[in-house]
Design goal:
single chain; about 260 residues; alpha+beta; Glucose Permease (Domain IIA); three-stranded antiparallel sheet; rod-shaped
């Protein structure tokens, strides 16, 4: 199948026979003009820009070919646009419920800066220095703290938008105005390749504080030999005036975990 068939069956005939017949007529007239003007190509089978190669032997023939090609295209386009394609067909190309391209699209509303972060799970508080992973305990990813979970549910510590979700479902990124968080479930759990992890969110989704993010199988994590500590790191803490873990002891989901100042 050549280049004409996709245009014919995929575009022109969608709007009925009128554009098809009009296009054929214009091209027929152009062919007749080419014959009357004595255009002589050195072969056939290629058209438009590659078709210049058929007339490269004569500058005057090339100029005539280009002029006729442009005039034919312009005439076919304008006549079909104004007289052959019905207006309702143009409207039909706009999906129902979608906005027209000319209308401005509103940007997503910003999510306010959170002054506090809630506990992401039920369990016991783990200070940053006691997290069994130097990447977190040394603050390489920002000020953080952890929770040793007693149940397999992980909740959002703030209102925000899911900025990233690991393919292995062991880590979730959440962002709000001026704050970027990383919630990392367990140590070296990336090696589990998602086994024992279930996500309840997707990237780009807006969540509220306390919304369920993940369900995890603590027994599988334990059987794989990995600590189950859930770390909450403020990855842009160096941009904030203050990031202060304030929790201690036993926690319930939503209990105050950290205080933030912009």
């Amino acid at each position: 199948m050549g280049i004409g068939e996709p245009a014919l069956f995929g575009v022109i005939l969608r709007y009925g026979m009128k554009p098809f017949l009009l296009s054929c007529s214009i091209n027929g007239i152009a062919g007749m003009i080419a014959m009357l003007l004595g255009m002589k190509g050195t072969g056939n089978g290629i058209t438009t820009i590659p078709g210049l190669l058929l007339y490269i032997y004569s500058p005057s023939q090339m100029i005539l070919y280009v002029t006729l090609a442009i005039a034919t295209f312009a005439a076919a386009f304008c006549l079909c646009w104004f007289f052959a394609v019905p207006p309702e067909a143009m409207e039909a190309d706009v999906p129902k419920g979608s906005k027209k391209a000319a209308e401005p699209v509103e940007a997503p509303a910003s999510i306010p800066f959170p002054e506090t972060l809630g506990a992401v799970a039920q369990g016991s508080f783990v200070p940053m220095a006691e997290i069994p992973d130097p990447t977190f305990s040394e603050g390489i990813l920002g000020v953080c703290c952890g929770v040793t979970p007693e149940t397999g549910k992980v909740y959002s510590p703030m209102d925000g938008r899911i900025s990233q979700l690991a393919d292995t479902l062991h880590a979730v990124g959440i962002e709000a105005e001026g704050v970027e968080l990383l919630i990392h479930v367990g140590i070296d759990t990336v090696k589990m390749q998602g086994d024992g992890f279930k996500s309840h969110v997707r990237e780009g989704q807006t969540v509220k504080k306390g919304d369920l993010l993940l369900t995890i199988d603590l027994e599988k994590i334990k059987a794989a030999g990995h600590p189950s500590t859930i770390m909450v790191a403020v990855t842009n803490s160096d941009e904030l005036a203050s990031v202060e873990p304030v929790a201690s002891g036993q926690l319930k989901p939503g209990d105050q975990l950290m205080r933030l100042k912009a």
